[in-house]
Specification:
Blueprint: H1 3-17, E1 23-25, E2 31-34, H2 37-42, H3 62-75
Antiparallel strand pairs: 1-2
């Protein structure tokens, strides 16, 4: 096995077993991955795959989130 495969397996297992919530987001702002911990956090399945990445964010926080995401994608600079 190569090192890349081992690292991928390690991080996949770490994320899958974590109690923290992780999600993958495409550059066009769609959710591509949701960690299993979402079920534990929400108490039920909450379908997010394919939805806009702002789904579930409080209305008052959404403009700041969208600004930060746009800056990250367009400028490749983390929001500060």
């Amino acid at each position: 096995m190569d090192n890349e495969f081992i690292q991928d397996a390690f991080f996949r297992q770490w994320i899958e077993q974590s109690s923290d919530f992780y999600q993958g987001i495409s550059l066009d702002g769609r959710i591509t991955y949701v960690s299993p911990s979402l079920h534990k956090l929400m108490g039920s399945a909450f379908p997010l795959i394919g939805k806009p990445c702002g789904t579930g964010i409080a209305a008052q926080d959404e403009p700041l989130f969208r600004q930060a995401f746009r800056q990250l994608v367009e400028e490749q600079v983390p929001y500060a």
